Amino acid sequence: MKIIDHLNRYVSDVDKFIDFYKNALDYALIDIGTKSDGKRYAILKGDGHELFISERDLFSIETVKNFRHIGYHVDDVDGWLDTLKSKGYAHESQEIIVKPFSKQFYLKDPDGFEIDFIQWTDKQGFYRYLRDKNITCQ
Fold first, then answer.
1. What is 1-58's CATH number, 3.30.300.30, 3.30.200.20, 3.80.10.10, 3.10.180.10?
2. Span 41-56, pLDDT tens digits
3. 3-state DSSP call for residue 81?
4. Which of 2, 28, 98, 101 has minimal Cβ neighbours within 10 Å of its Cβ?
5. What architecture is domain 69-138?
6. Where in the chain is the domain with CATH 3.30.720.110?
């Protein structure tokens, strides 16, 4: 099985994203600079992957997206939500969504991109459920 090594995306403001990913999600800043085209970039290290961010001319948040969100597996979704609330990144009214096989919540980054924090309560049960529905991907 292949694992994701890194994500690379454009952002509106590198400094805003460094602050968000370091303080909200515990990433480490491992590089920052200016590319040959004059645009700023940074590389942040997460748990087993890196996030490359860079600014670009005429950046805008797309209103029609083909990429819905990125999901982070967490061991304690309630703890993560409490921490993000205490740091001001999540609203006090934010609640955990409880599903048959998971607990999760969604948060938006500084540019409005959705992040899913998911704690699987029964991932094997989820796989059995899919198998029993006869979903096969060949």
1. 3.10.180.10
2. 999 999 999 999 999 8
3. helix
4. 2
5. 2-Layer Sandwich (3.30)
6. 69-138
Q: Answer yes or no: are the C-beta atoms of 81 and 117 closer than 8 Å.
A: yes
Buried b (16+ CB within 10 A) or exposed e, 115-138: bbbbbbeeeeeeeeeeeeeeeeee
CA angle 111, 114, 118 (to 5 degrees): 145
Q: Which two tokens stand for residue 54?
A: 């860079």
Tell me which H or E stretch contains 69.
strand 69-73
Sheet with strand 50-54: strands edge to edge: 6-10, 50-54, 40-45, 28-34
For 125, the token pair is 């049960």
